[in-house]
Each structure stands twice: as structure tokens, then as C-alpha cells.
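In the current project phase, our protein records have gained a C-alpha cell line. A sample record follows, to show the layout:
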Amino acid sequence: MKVICFGDSNTYGYDPRGYFGGRYDADSRWVDILATETGWTVCNMGQNGREIPSVVPALPADTDLLIVMLGTNDLLQGQSPEQAAERLERFLSGVSLDRSKILLIAPLPVTLGAWVPSPQLIEDSHAFAQLCQTLAERLGIRFADAGKWDVSLAYDGVHFTEQGHKAFAASLLEELK
């Protein structure tokens, strides 16, 4: 099975303890744990700071599953949950894969921390998760809400801890069964 994980720094495996875009070790990144646990070919298309793109990148036609988790950076850059959801809808509508091969994951809601100084951002991240669910239903794609998984965030209120990545991977594996 060929899987593409398309997302931001939490997909990339960013380690917030460093300042230069470092990553957690492979055994602590959810994408790599998914590959190890399943034996699937998993391509990590996570990128630090990625907002929802206006254009879908070329995806191999033999992709069996596209996992998309985006939107946190859009909110951090001042977009409303509704604006981020509209961008996400345009992005997902441009994906040429069969709808049954797409899994949209609502990002984990942010918490107060070094990168999240305002309760409004927290409210917005919860609202965005709800909009993601509605969007997935409207587009007929699979949906999961990472906010319902027991994922711990680092001091910045945005990035998964190493334990958070492991918990995310475990919950995703259950979701995919």
C-alpha cells in the first residue's frame, strides 16, 4: 500500500526543542511509526510552516491513501476558521484521487503556549475542526478528529511532543483498521 501524508510541521516531525527546523528521530515521528507498524510505503510530505496550498502537488496515480492534515498555520497567520476551511475545500476539490482514497484529519486544537498567546486561537482551532468534519461529509471523504486523540503538545501549544507523535500514530492506526 502506498500512502502520502501531506501536512505541516507536525507531519514533518518538527522538534520544537531546537531552533533550526530539526526533527524528532524516526522512531518518534507518527509518519514513520505508521510505516513501521504497517509495512506500507509511506511518503512524508510534511513541511514546516506549510499553510493550505492553492495548488495540489502532483500525486502519483498509484497512491492508495492520501492523509491530509492542514490548517493550523493558516489560523496562526490570522485566517479565520471559515477562511481556512474554504482554502481547504478548494485544495481537496483539486485532488485527482478517488474520494475513497482521501483521509482528512482535523488538526489537534492548539493550547496556550509560546506560539499561542490568545484564547481566540484556541477557539478558532476548535471551530476549524468542526468545519473540517462538515467539509469531509460534504466532499464524501474519510474524516478523523485528532482533537479526540490523547496527543500531548509541547511548550509552544502547537507541536506534538515525542509521546504525542506516538499517541497520534496509535490512534491513527486504530482509525485505519
